[in-house]
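Per your request, structure below.
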């Protein structure tokens, strides 16, 4: 039964603002090779002429530091608003305000539970604090209406086409985040909260976006001695995106790639199932979706060690998990070989602009560069009216997310 008249819009529709959370650490590693602050600055330089920008800072001291840093990099601080919130994580896509709009231009926020990607319970101090973020963010952008739900869900696993359809990962929403709920109950609640007519359930996320603590993964030689540096534990924005109401981009692994690397092989199985599922879906008018295949990045590995911020972040769950990963293997000590969260689907769409990810660095196989260029060409073809740029984002990806995860867009409302 319809209980309100608000609905979600597509990310490709007009936006009022984009929020980021400024990172506490400038570098992901002690070597200063992976500069996450530099990623933030480049992102702002692209955004600032297209959409209002909000930066959430941990406290007033960090706000002053950020203002000085922006001024030193010749970024116009007068175009940026600052919010204060002691967030322990930076991926605001997942716990920032999910804003809905009605036909009168009024807006509301969908208020979800949060369990830190299944790592901590809902009542853990980290989860409880971040659960507040969406309401603080909504109030900051003058959205007072609240649609309350006790579903646990993150924004990175919710893709909307702006016409009553949600696309999401079933394993994440039903089996991982909302144990005790049936699929039918989760679906009914999503439909109530977002006024949806249809949900497209894709069975599984990509292999490399599974739980970062599940155990070791294959390295470049196929040996089980590497680890995920971080992950969202099952988000759709790593693999499948709406680019308009009837067009979907989906990551794709070729037969040749699957034979070349076990990571590719694991992902091909999952992505092929998702593709076949999408081929059988239609929009609300009965028309099949246009489905466009995107390449997947080549696996890239980074060596990290004790004292590196990204290593220390990984180790935070050591005591909670009693020194063992979920497969029973021991937590890695002193140093690790890790794979960042890599994806060409984790792009941001905003007003007249699309910001994508790229990975090639000098010394890497040329195939990495070729894939970067192919992904950029595809995005330019599906967004012909927008400027499309690509950023080197490995420093951000080391923390388990990408440009889309790092940003939280707010759609534009209006006064009737």
């Amino acid at each position: 039964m319809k209980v309100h008249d608000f609905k979600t819009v597509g990310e490709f529709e007009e936006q009022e603002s984009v929020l980021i959370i400024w990172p506490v650490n400038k570098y992901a590693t002690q070597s200063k090779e992976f500069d996450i602050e530099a990623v933030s600055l480049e992102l702002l330089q692209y955004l600032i002429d297209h959409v209002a920008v909000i930066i959430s800072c941990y406290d007033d001291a960090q706000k002053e530091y950020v203002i000085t840093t922006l001024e030193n990099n010749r970024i116009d601080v007068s175009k940026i608003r600052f919010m204060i919130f002691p967030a322990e994580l930076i991926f605001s896509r997942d716990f920032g305000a999910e804003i809905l709009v009605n036909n009168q231009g009024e807006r509301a926020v969908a208020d979800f539970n949060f369990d830190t990607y299944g790592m901590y319970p809902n009542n853990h101090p980290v989860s409880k604090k971040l659960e507040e973020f969406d309401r603080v963010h909504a109030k900051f952008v003058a959205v007072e209406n609240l649609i309350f739900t006790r579903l646990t869900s993150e924004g990175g696993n919710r893709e909307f086409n702006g016409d009553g359809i949600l696309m999401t990962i079933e394993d994440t929403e039903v089996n991982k985040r909302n144990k005790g709920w049936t699929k039918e109950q989760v679906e009914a609640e999503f439909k109530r909260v977002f006024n949806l007519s249809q949900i497209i359930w894709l069975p599984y996320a990509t292999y490399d976006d599974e739980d970062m603590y599940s155990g070791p993964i294959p390295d470049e030689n196929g040996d089980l001695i590497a680890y995920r540096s971080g992950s969202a534990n099952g988000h759709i924005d790593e693999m499948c995106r709406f680019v308009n109401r009837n067009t979907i981009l989906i990551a794709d692994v070729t037969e040749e790639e699957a034979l070349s690397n076990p990571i590719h092989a694991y992902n091909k199985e999952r992505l092929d199932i998702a593709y076949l599922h999408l081929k059988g879906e239609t929009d609300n008018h009965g028309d099949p979706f246009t489905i466009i295949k995107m390449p997947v990045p080549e696996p890239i590995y980074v060596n990290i060690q004790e004292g590196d911020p990204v290593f220390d972040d990984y180790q935070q769950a050591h005591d909670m998990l009693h020194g063992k990963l979920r497969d029973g293997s021991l937590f890695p000590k002193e140093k690790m070989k890790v794979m960042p969260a890599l994806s060409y689907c984790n792009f941001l769409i905003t007003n007249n602009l699309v910001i994508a990810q790229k990975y090639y660095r000098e010394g890497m196989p040329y195939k990495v560069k070729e894939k970067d260029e192919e992904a950029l060409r595809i995005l330019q073809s599906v967004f012909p009216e927008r400027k499309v740029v690509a950023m080197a984002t490995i420093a951000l990806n080391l923390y388990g997310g990408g440009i889309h995860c790092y940003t939280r867009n707010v759609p534009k409302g209006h006064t009737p």
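The chain has a mean pLDDT of 97.

Regards,
D.
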